[in-house]
User: What shape does this take?
Amino acid sequence: MTTRVEASHFSIKIMCHEWSRIANGNRQEKKPLVVCFGEMLIDFVPTVGGVSLAEAPGFKKAAGGAPANVAVGISRLGGSSAFIGKVGEDEFGYLLAEILKQNNVDNSGMRFDHGARTALAFVTLRADGEREFLFFRNPSADMLLHESELDVNLLKKASIFHYGSISLIEEPCRSAHLAAMDIAKKSGSILSYDPNLRLPLWPSEEAARKGIMSIWNKADIIKISEEEISFLTCGKDPYDDKVVLEELFHPNLKLLVVTEGSEGCRYYTKNFKGRVAGVKVKPVDTTGAGDAFVSGMLTGLASNLNLYEDEKKLREALLFANACGAITVMERGAIPALPTREAVLRILPKVAS
Assistant: This one.
């Protein structure tokens, strides 16, 4: 494996020109579809930072759920996306379906459960912008999606099928998740996995570790955080390339990306590895930053399905993804903070200045 140097100011200018060209090209051309599977919920975020839930004077309501965030993020960036999942047949569920529609996300794969409520999550913001979660889902509608409710035709249209691990926790959603992966894979989709560890939702740490790893070897693309590496490897050094390659890089994997927050990300393929610097901003709320990063990465992949074979183009796409994440942390909430392509292109030239 080889490691490349950081992008120069000149290469960033070229990259911005290329992203603009793609954005302003033939808009009638059919774009590769990214189908996102899993949970969608309502996040309640305190109106002030650095306080506990009990101390919060009020909350801002925002749509959330990692797979849904990614679907909206891709659409905001000019891509084509769809969401498959289940919400309650209630006002929050209808609101979430409408938010997807307003953001040009295909919501035809959504299902509504009349017996269970839409999931809620209260998210505390510490002084450093990091989050703590309190979930209300016992059970929530997203856990009750059945295999028979899957939109098979939509799955077969996917160029990329993206998912997390929360939908693996309970039946019947787990079986629906596995069936959706199988349909997408057999139809030629690239499988994209972001484990998105949420320990409070799992019965135990061991159950979480086992559940997340149960589908690990089926993914083509995996995005993971430093914290998740430590968890999945039982405390091994997340910065050690040897740990990442020996413990987490499997033979079928095309690309493994490790996010490091404001420090940027690392990437690993069968032929090369390296690091791309982050975009420095003052964080307000890190909710949705990882999802914004995935949105940027998958938007690049959708425009070039062999992106992981070209290190220069991969690095450009990951720098773009880093900028997506950086913009998102400057506003509270996940979906409300997700950037447009124009916002990302405005911030990128400042990276090397």
